[in-house]
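hey can u check if this looks right to u? its 247 residues, i copy pasted from the old doc so theres a chance i mangled smth
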Amino acid sequence: MITIDLNADVGEGMDDSAILPFLTSANVACGLHAGGPEVMDRTVAQALERGVRIGAHPGYDDRANFGRLDVELSTAAASSLVLFQIGALDAFVRAHGGALVHVKPHGALYNRAAKNIDLARAIADGVRRARADLVLVGLAGSLSLEAAKSAGLPVAAEAFADRRYLPDGSLMPRKQAGSVLTDPADAAEQALHIARDGYVVASDGSKLEVRAQTLCLHGDTPGAPRIARAVRERLESEGVRVAPLRS
């Protein structure tokens, strides 16, 4: 049976209670690009109550731009940035009797590391310094995964159910029309093609091979709970098992 994890970026200021029941993993913002201590505490509690696995979602320290613009950092600074945020979230997870499972960088940090080996290595170093058994989640086929494997970290290749892809395999920039799939049926169709068939239809209509262990949704996408429900129901109706990483 085909098995895939279903994750979402949460703890970013939205009400996540409606989307959590459809997830198997949650990437919780760590307070720099979004969220904060109270939001982190509440989100972790809600996720664990529903049996959802917790991951840290570290981003650039840039709340004004929601962590979606590049910030120039040295490799040492990038490693420390990641380590700091993992430690902050891990404290909340342990306080609620849970265990942190994975780390997924956010926004511009994630996208840049997919193509920049120095940043990818810095992120992997920050994760490894926190805990060498944490799963690093990165874009399928990216340098992020290559760097993590070289650092001895377990990895999970990620694809996106609610984002349009460019022909080169990268995500379409959010500033471009059509970059976010807001129709639940469209997102569910893309999720199924990725999980079952191993491909995604790019913006030009071409098919791109994508092999992923986890599918991402965004908690801040309009209608996110409806999209999450549609994706999960479509996957399961087609015989795809939805289960958390390391289940």
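DSSP finds seven helices and ten strands in the chain.
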